[in-house]
Amino acid sequence: VLSETLQAAMAGGEQVVKLLDTVPDVLDPANPIELPAIRGRVTFDHVSFRYRPELPEVLHQINLDIQPGQTVALVGPTGAGKTSIGNLIARFYDVSAGAVLIDGLDVRTVTQRQLHQQIGLVPQDSFLFSGTIADNIRFGCPEATAAEVEHAAKLANAHDFIMAKPDGYGTRVQEGASNLSVGQRQLVCIARAILTDPRILILDEATSNVDSLTESLIQDALRRLLQGRTAVVIAHRLSTIRNADVICVVQDGQIVEQGQHEDLLARGGVYTALYQRQFAE
């Protein structure tokens, strides 16, 4: 039994070494361009994308121009390619064809660190690590003071539930954040995004899997967070994005409709069908 255990441990060690030796698919350029403080214009120029060379494309010839300060919502059925569009803005993957530009600069020409310093992400599944609640809010801005952390939490509607905890901001987050509800985790992530003060925000189903009261708190916090920033909102609940500057309907890896809520409803197309289906439900 001991021999088998040692062999398994050694095999596991070999797997860890192989993992650490893996070369990432996304690499910084040899001679990166300095990324200045960005205004927040995001352009997709004939972008196609597949996750691996042997797999089919998930995005086909996407053309999209988001102006600084605009809120653009991406809606459509599951698997349409909405999250892939958000991932390409943050350069979690590289395009297969075309280019993603920020303020006219191809994201592949700057370092990932510089890019991510000016982009905020609030994902559907909020990620919190072991440490205090304050540590988690301060994650992207480690030099932030306690007063700045508290201010961000208040803007995110997280302050009240944090202060209700026995140790307040010093409350330790348990493994898997099991001592926080789904909504509370999301509010902490929004506070984290507020603190980093990004110019571009990507919100991926930020209000899913929460009750209606928590959703209203999150929506209120997001309204504060979005002010003056470029935002790409990936949404399932169409009621949450009615006031977006532009709504893009993504289907089968393409933007098939684009406009504002009332205009899209009047067309009687894909957006109308999605909206009526949700209304019926």
The main sheet comes to: 6 strands, mixed
Q: What strand line-up does the widest sheet have?
A: 6-9-10-3-11-12
Separate helix tally:
10
Strand content: 15-25%
N-to-C series of helices and strands: HEEEHEEHEEHHHEHEHEEEHH
Computed Rg: 21 Å
Low-confidence segments, given as residue ranges, are none
Name the structural class: alpha/beta
Helix content: 25-40%
Straight-line N-to-C gap: 56 Å
Q: Looking at the structure, what is the overall shape?
A: globular
What number is the mean pLDDT? 88
Q: How many β-strand stretches?
A: 12
Produce a short descriptive summary:
The chain has about 280 residues and is an alpha/beta fold.
Task: Describe the protein's topology.
Blueprint: H1 2-20, E1 42-49, E2 59-66, E3 71-75, H2 82-89, E4 97-102, E5 105-106, H3 112-116, E6 119-122, E7 131-132, H4 133-137, H5 146-155, H6 159-163, E8 172-173, H7 182-196, E9 200-204, H8 212-226, E10 230-234, E11 246-251, E12 254-259, H9 261-267, H10 270-280
Parallel strand pairs: 3-10, 3-11, 6-9, 9-10
Antiparallel strand pairs: 1-2, 1-4, 4-5, 7-8, 11-12
Helix pairs in contact: 5-7, 7-8
